[in-house]
Amino acid sequence: MKKVLLGLLFASNSFASPPDELLVFGAASLTESLQGAGQNFEASGGGKVAFSFGSSSDLARQIEAGAPADVFFSADTAKMDSVEMAGLVRKADRREFLSNVLVVVVPSDSTAKIGSARDLEALPKLALADPAAVPAGVYAKQWLTEKGVWSAIEPKVIPTLDVRAALAAVAGGDVPAGIVYRTDAAISKDVRIAYTVTDGPSIKYSVAPITSSEHPQAAAKFVAFLDSPAGRAIFEKRGFLIKPAP
């Protein structure tokens, strides 16, 4: 499968932030929510926060390679597991209160009707975040495999760098359909949801401070803010699903 990566990868040293500023590595699907959370955190006196957004797989690799992240917010638990195994996250520090839903999107002016996973077999192309590595694509592949259509659809897949790149490919009319998170579809007027996956895999985000952070107290404080009622409300407003507090 030919890989089309819509986006740029940067060397870890390009992420350097001012010494008094937290650097949060966040999954692309969290962009608007985390930016809003950062603004609220700063306004409440929590300190300055900067962000680097991208696919969770790429962000995890950068952290493991020494990128100066203070906090990592992954769109799945597998990438956080990898960072934890590298000794850069403590299991006790992880918080996993956020979920999402997969949807099939088409251009807003498209007349395509999707009533099931099998209907996707008729499409000439389908945009997915790279199903070999990126959480949104991995989740989508899992769903399509469970429905018995992955082998027919795989040759038509256009894999992208992250879920926002898949969204952009559909919004721009380059691809007739794509599978993204419901929260991604909500930010674009150039796509419409043609099908909501109600029987897909369990989607679980994971956030934790990085053990090598030079701002450990501030990093822990920001993670705690994200999991607070005020933080959860920001994500819920954007359409994320919130797991009840333990």
Can you walk through the features of this model?
This protein is of the alpha/beta class. The protein has two domains: 12-99 and 204-242, Periplasmic binding protein-like II (D-Maltodextrin-Binding Protein, domain 2); 102-196, D-Maltodextrin-Binding Protein, domain 2 (3-Layer(aba) Sandwich). It contains nine helices and eleven strands.
Total separate domains: 2
Which band does the percent of strand residues land in? 15-25%
Second-tier CATH architecture of the largest domain: 3-Layer(aba) Sandwich
Round the mean pLDDT to the nearest integer and report it. Answer: 92
CATH superfamily of the largest domain: Periplasmic binding protein-like II
Total strand count, please? 11
Q: Percent range for helical residues?
A: 25-40%
**Alpha carbon gyration radius:** 18 Å
